[in-house]
Recover the amino acids of this structure.
């Protein structure tokens, strides 16, 4: 075994849920419960395993991702690693100083100035005052808040606040860094900056445990990833494979029938029951190819009371890592559907699929009077196979760009006479 | 348990090793951790002091006004109207001398007692020795104490009471008052995470405690036989000690000895209670 930074052995964590719904006890109830046979009868207790037998090791200098759906146990695992809560069974060994960043702005006090908050937040995160003093200029520099150092942070814009908070945390120098979804905050420029900083941390040889829903960030930063599913290890290994399995998990419900889809939301009245891809002859397709013309058919049922709603139907395509590719809806083409039949299809014809070969996720929504009637995010996967778009037998892969544009090349010389003589 | 390491795994000895295991119900006193986080203790105490008087018109003047007003009211009600006996000392300095340690005690207990619940957000987001919170909250009262002590010295001059070397005893007595407060404060802080009842009971408890301590009256009014039981309240020894340091008279040796014993016992209980419940704060708070 070489240079292990983090070793987690058979860690489980259970919570007791009191179905009464109260989070703290009162003295009287506990005293009554001590009397035999007088326990409060309405309180039923149930044990919930947030984490079950999770084991893994992280070598020093590795960036490991922890992914999984909400409630899979990611946050619980982080809280145990960060020593905020204890495991119920199992053990963890951490070799090195641990810094945890479960939130941006931990310990900031709104009444205190930026200067004071740097020291407050820094010491809470485990830095010594001397260390903070040494890093002070770098922190202020990174956060770009020099002129506001003596202003209470409650007067900061949210962007400034976020930058300062992240800057303090980013200048922690622990051997092991535990990071939660912190990159999900702030504007795009800030996200890029903080992602870059995370990359630097990794390159400097420190061990990072990184929890995120942002698969692009996980893919960019992590070599390995742990996929959690209902508190158990579903996969542990190469980050790309873990992401693949996570996305699979994500689409397991994505067969064309959507009737029992769990993630449906909206007011109801009109419901999309299935989504199909069809070619121009109406044949149902499993996948399409780059450059093809296809129909996306949203099968729906409408209750009579909803038949007169002025529906705006939209389809949106995202990459597996969550980047939007396109959105289209019938208001863009000023199409009105009129009175809805009891059941039918909204059909969106895509004249030209300008997409590189890979799998995308299709979302839809039905909106009327500014209200969501029915919608499912990432409802079904949409696979695009390679098509000879340019007639040359060569198409760039998806990793070089999601979009296959229609373009042409030529050459123009600065001296027109030169070309003419070739 | 397939991943158990061989004991000779090549881990650099310079790295701090932390082992996280389930809560086995043992008591581990976190003094090492507390020492490592001493800077946090200081910065948190500073924060409490800074924040307290921000956005107040007269700021730090409140530190003088509060105890002085209390002393004046006591002087009027108990000194004038009820005309309580205070040996030979004028009532105002007599009661102010007792309010010095009493305010250290009640202030520290009050602030420490509610501190954990008030820091719930922090407890669930980051690890540090949880004792930092009640202790730093309690330390904040020392600023108020320092200012009130200056007022006391002015009162001594104003009433023509001579300064003596006994004044030096104030230092250890203040430490004793803080320790007693830390003991009571940590117990209440820890328990109010589980039972909010303690937050509500705290002001009432302190009110009763004030009258059970010789703040507005002299210990002399208690019969000699009852004195040792009365002194089980550590504030009795501490307050009598303060009065001795400021005005002279007989040294309250018995009361102080009992106060020291009671404080040590309470501190041990407080630390044990705190350590027992500390690990599950984040799950409950």
């Amino acid at each position: 075994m070489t240079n292990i930074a983090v070793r987690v052995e058979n860690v489980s964590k259970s919570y007791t849920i009191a179905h009464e719904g109260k989070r703290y006890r009162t003295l009287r109830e506990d005293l009554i419960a001590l009397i035999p046979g007088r326990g409060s009868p309405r309180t039923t207790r149930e044990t919930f395993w947030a984490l079950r037998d999770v084991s893994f090791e992280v070598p020093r200098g590795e960036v490991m991702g922890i992914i999984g759906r909400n409630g899979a146990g990611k946050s619980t695992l982080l809280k145990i690693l960060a020593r905020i809560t204890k495991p119920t069974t199992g053990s963890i060994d951490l070799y090195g100083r641990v810094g945890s960043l479960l939130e941006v702005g931990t310990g900031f006090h709104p009444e205190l100035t930026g200067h004071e908050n740097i020291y407050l937040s820094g010491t809470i995160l485990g830095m010594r005052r001397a260390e903070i003093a040494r890093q002070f200029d770098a922190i202020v520099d990174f956060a770009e808040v020099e002129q506001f150092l003596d202003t209470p942070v409650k007067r900061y814009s949210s962007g400034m606040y976020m930058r300062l908070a992240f800057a303090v945390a980013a200048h922690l120098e622990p051997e092991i860094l535990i990071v939660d979804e912190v990159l999900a905050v702030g504007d795009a420029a800030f996200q890029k900056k903080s992602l870059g900083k995370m990359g630097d941390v990794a390159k400097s040889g420190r061990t990072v445990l990184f929890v995120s829903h942002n698969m692009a960030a996980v893919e960019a930063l992590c070599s390995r990833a742990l996929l959690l599913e209902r508190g158990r290890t579903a996969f542990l290994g190469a980050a790309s494979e873990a992401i693949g399995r996570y996305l699979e998990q994500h689409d397991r419900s994505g067969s064309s029938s959507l009737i029992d889809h769990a993630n449906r939301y909206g007011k109801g009245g009109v419901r999309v029951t299935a989504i199909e891809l069809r070619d121009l002859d109406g044949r149902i397709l499993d996948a399409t190819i780059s450059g093809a013309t296809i129909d996306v058919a949203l099968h729906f049922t409408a209750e009579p009371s909803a038949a007169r709603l002025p529906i705006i139907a939209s389809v949106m395509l995202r990459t597996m890592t969550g980047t939007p590719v396109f959105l289209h809806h019938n208001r863009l083409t000023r199409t009105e559907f009129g009175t809805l039949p009891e059941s039918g299809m909204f059909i969106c014809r895509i004249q030209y699929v300008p997409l590189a070969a890979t799998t995308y996720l299709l979302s839809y929504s039905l909106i009327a009077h500014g209200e969501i009637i029915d919608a499912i995010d990432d409802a079904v996967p949409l696979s695009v196979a390679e098509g000879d778009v340019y007639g040359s037998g060569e198409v760039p892969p998806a990793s070089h760009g999601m979009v296959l544009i229609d373009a042409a090349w030529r050459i123009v010389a600065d001296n027109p006479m030169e070309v003419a003589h070739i | 348990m397939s991943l158990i390491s061989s004991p000779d795994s090549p881990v650099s000895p310079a790295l701090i090793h932390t082992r996280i295991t389930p809560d086995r119900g043992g008591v581990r006193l976190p003094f090492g951790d507390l020492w490592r986080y001493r800077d946090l203790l200081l910065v948190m105490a500073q924060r409490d002091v800074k924040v307290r008087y921000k956005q107040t018109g007269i700021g730090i003047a409140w530190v003088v006004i509060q105890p002085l007003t209390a002393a004046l009211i006591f002087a009027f009600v108990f000194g004038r109207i009820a005309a309580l006996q205070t040996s030979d000392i004028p009532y105002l300095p007599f009661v102010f001398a007792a309010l010095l340690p009493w305010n250290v005690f009640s202030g520290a207990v009050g602030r420490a007692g509610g501190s954990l619940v008030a820091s719930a957000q922090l407890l669930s987001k980051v690890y540090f020795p949880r004792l930092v919170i009640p202790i730093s909250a309690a330390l904040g009262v020392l600023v108020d104490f320092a200012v009130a002590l200056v007022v006391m010295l002015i009162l001594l001059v104003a009433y023509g009471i001579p300064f003596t070397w006994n004044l030096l005893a104030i230092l250890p007595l203040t430490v004793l008052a803080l320790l007693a407060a830390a003991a009571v404060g940590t117990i209440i802080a820890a328990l109010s995470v589980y039972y909010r009842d303690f937050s509500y009971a705290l002001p009432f408890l302190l009110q009763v405690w004030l009258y059970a301590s010789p703040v507005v009256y002299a210990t002399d009014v208690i019969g000699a036989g009852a004195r040792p039981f009365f002194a089980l309240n550590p504030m009795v020894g501490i307050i009598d000690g303060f009065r001795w340091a400021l005005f002279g008279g007989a040294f309250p040796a018995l009361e102080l000895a009992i106060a020291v014993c009671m404080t040590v016992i309470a501190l041990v209980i407080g630390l044990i209670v705190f350590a027992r419940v500390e690990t599950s704060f984040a799950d409950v708070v």
Remarks:
- Confidence is low (pLDDT under 50) at residues 251-255 of chain A.
